[in-house]
Amino acid sequence: MPADLAVIGLGHHGLPLARAATSAGIDTLGHDTDPHAVAELAAGRPPVDGSLTAAEIRRMLSAGFRPVTDPAELGRVRTAVICAPTPPGPDGTLDLGAVTAAARVLAARLRPHTTVLVESPVPPGTTEGPLRELLEAGSGLRAGRDFHLAYSPGRIDPGSRAHGAARGPAAAPKVIGGLTPACTESAAAFYGRLTDKVVRARGPREAETVKLLETNFRHVNIALVNEMAVLCHELGIDLWDVIRCAETKPYGFQAFRPGPGVGGHGVPLDTVAGHRPLRLVELAGRINERMPQYVVQRSATLLNEHGKSARGARILLLGVTYKPDLADREGSPADEIARRLMDLGAAVSYHDPYVPDWRVRELPVPRADSLYEAAAHADLTILLQHHRTYDLQGLAVKAQLLLDTRGATPAGAAHRL
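The chain above was modelled as a monomer; its predicted structure follows.
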């Protein structure tokens, strides 16, 4: 059966979009190359990252959502949105393999008058450059004349009630940059069915660069407070109190908070092919990448100050996801922290209500069943992620030694980053 919309890539970008579309009454199919993921969705089971619940998936299916692997289905839609993942490659740049593969699959079945939208994070120039070339070469059609082409950066804050996956594109104003004015208006007509506000960029490059700026802004500001955390510890200053006071300023300041590292799906880009590097972003990346090592250093120092060595120490890690109250572990610093602690000879265990199984270096990490009992038994407990289920006051009483990397415990109740 034909559908109004095809979402290509059913990950953390595509699935929320498909949910929003079905909720808006748009006949939607979701295409993914992973047969297991498609089968799980078709059976009503939610994704492992916890971005949508089983009830939400079942409502999508009952509203007509169809997850498929057959690319032939893409030949019968009016709008196609590419939401394929672009993870960091070995050199730190975005791996566009899944996006270009999606473009090739779509191109072979592209019909005239289709609107093609790209939401995957890509470097500026990708939509009107290589992706446009792939679509035109594979279809024999011309972008801007025979089909519409536009870019729109995804804006979802996982776990947020106001801006999370459950709301999809309605979570924030939708930026759109089309290859031509007609492309922009076609994209605006589609997204206008999902959100109250559409913002028109001058073109695809500007829209792509919006995503670049937003992601780099986050990483640079986290790097600043991470450096401040190190400095304030050396000076004996309570950074968390500093931030609490600073955020009362009604202009010129936005509060960011330090942590054990930066996780998530947004990858900062400090270089764009053929152009000079963004030196501030490059430096921010180095600062943030050092935070897991700093946490391990602080841990070893705390143990030493209490007459213990890291070698042989029992260390409990609390919260191994990248964000609170989510199962998503994408880019979580917990993996590197665990590896470094193991290299020091520590016996590492963990507790996380959202992660039933965790492996580091292909080996299972022991999971604590009783949180308080495990904290009382551990030489050091490290809070890496503040899930709402954690009673930190009670934990601070039970733990022999507690290092809080999130500033979530009351002042004086634990050692804070």
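The radius of gyration is 23 Å.
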